[in-house]
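Hey team,

Sharing the Transposase IS66 central domain-containing protein run so nobody has to redo it. Sequence (109 residues) first:
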Amino acid sequence: MLGAQATAGRDGKLQRKHHALFVRLRDRRDDYLRFVTDPAVPFDNNAAEQTIRMPKLRIKVSGSMRTMTGAEHFAAIRSYTATAIRQGNNMLDALIQAVTGNPWIPATT
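Structure output:
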């Protein structure tokens, strides 16, 4: 293959990374292109990046989470609201329902 020849046998760190990337793409082609044949698979991982953005920002601003319990509560609330949004619900409405004792529960499939 032309790609294997073009990236193989490199001495520099960057060239080795390029070759490793080529090998992963070649060996796991079906995994990397699954979004083409399966519409349920997203094209990118932007949803995952958005999910971790707020906790990382909070840690950056305050230096850390104060307690493990606080971090767990923060993660649970963020997970709940992210799931509600992905299911097409309004985040504020889901939070109000949860606080008033009638929480929105996602449908199971």
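The chain is about 70% helix and 0% strand.

Ping me if you want the raw files.
A.
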